[in-house]
Specification:
By secondary structure, the protein is an alpha/beta fold. It is 40% helix and 23% strand. The strands form two sheets. It has a six-stranded mixed β-sheet with strand order 6-7-8-3-9-10, sandwiched between helices. It is globular and about 55 Å long.
C-alpha cells in the first residue's frame, strides 16, 4: 500500500511527508453581508488529524466545501495535494477528488443499494481498470477493516446508525485516498457507538497515514482522535493547537467552549 500511495502522491504534484497535503491560506467567504470565513489558514500533513470545532454557523461546513472544490472563496486559496481548488481545471479537480475520502454527517448511504453496493460505488465509477471480482474483493477487505464482515447483503435501513457510519468510512476509503474529510462522524450516536467510531478512525489513521480534517461539535471525540484542534468563532480560528493548548488558553471563548462540553 505504501508504494501505491507514494505513486499517487507523485502523480498529483510530488506531495511528500514534509509538505502539507492540505494548505488553506487566508480564506474568506461571505454570503451577502454575513462573513462566514474571515482569513482562515491552516495546514495538515499526512499522518495528522485536524479537528475543526465551533458553534453552528461558524463556517465549518463551508470550509469543507471549499476544500473539496464545491465552493470558491472570495479571497485566499485552498491548495489540496498542490492544486489550487479555485483555479484548477475540471480535470485536475476531478483527479484530486479521487484521492479524497469524505464521510458525510449522516453517512449519506444510498437507501436502494446494499452495504456492499454502497461501498463499491466509488470503485464502479472510478476504477474501470478493476475487474468485477477485484472490486468485490476490495469491498470485502474494506468491510473487514471497519468490522462489518458478513453484513454486505444488508440494506442501510437494516443496520444501526453506528454501522451506517462504518459503511460510510469504508466507502470513503474505497479509492485508497491520501486525504480523509469527516463531517460530524459521531453526530446522532450514543456514547458507546461514538467511542467505537473514534477508535476506528484512530486505527484507520494509523494504518493509512492520512491527512484528515474532522468537523465536529464533540470535544470528547476531538480530544480522542485529533493531532490538533482548531476552534472557530465568527469566521476566525480563535486558537489552533493541542487539547492541552486549549486548556491553557486565556481566551474567554475557548474557556466557555471547553466548559460547555465538560
Amino acid at each position: 500500500m505504501q508504494a501505491s500511495q507514494e505513486n499517487k502522491t507523485a502523480k498529483v504534484g510530488g506531495i511528500d511527508d514534509d509538505k502539507p497535503a492540505i494548505d488553506v491560506r487566508h480564506v474568506t467567504k461571505s454570503f451577502g453581508k454575513q462573513c462566514v470565513l474571515d482569513g482562515v489558514s491552516f495546514q495538515v500533513k499526512r499522518g495528522e488529524t485536524l479537528a475543526v470545532l465551533g458553534r453552528s454557523g461558524t463556517g465549518k461546513s463551508v470550509l469543507l466545501r471549499i476544500i473539496i472544490g464545491l465552493q470558491t472563496p472570495d479571497s485566499g486559496e485552498a491548495l489540496i495535494l498542490g492544486k489550487n481548488m479555485s483555479s484548477a481545471s475540471a480535470g485536475e479537480i476531478s483527479e484530486v477528488r479521487t484521492q479524497m475520502g469524505f464521510l458525510f454527517q449522516h453517512a449519506a448511504l444510498y437507501d436502494s443499494l446494499t452495504v456492499e453496493e454502497n461501498v463499491a460505488f466509488p470503485l464502479v465509477h472510478h476504477r474501470h481498470d478493476m475487474s468485477q471480482s477485484e472490486k468485490q474483493e476490495r469491498v470485502k477487505e474494506l468491510l473487514h477493516e471497519v468490522g462489518l464482515d458478513g453484513h454486505q447483503d444488508k440494506m442501510p435501513s437494516d443496520i444501526s446508525g453506528g454501522m451506517q457510519k462504518r459503511v460510510g468510512l469504508a466507502r470513503a476509503l474505497a479509492l485508497d485516498p491520501l486525504i480523509l474529510l469527516l463531517d460530524e462522524p459521531t453526530a446522532g450516536l450514543d456514547p458507546i457507538s461514538s467511542g467505537e467510531i473514534d477508535e476506528l478512525v484512530l486505527k484507520l489513521q494509523q494504518e493509512h497515514r492520512l491527512a484528515s480534517i474532522v468537523v465536529t461539535h464533540d470535544m470528547v471525540s476531538a480530544k480522542t482522535i485529533a493531532t490538533r484542534i482548531a476552534l472557530m468563532d465568527k469566521g476566525k480560528v480563535v486558537i489552533e493547537g493541542t487539547f492541552e493548548d486549549l486548556q491553557k488558553s486565556d481566551e474567554e471563548f475557548v474557556s466557555q467552549f471547553l466548559h460547555r462540553d465538560f
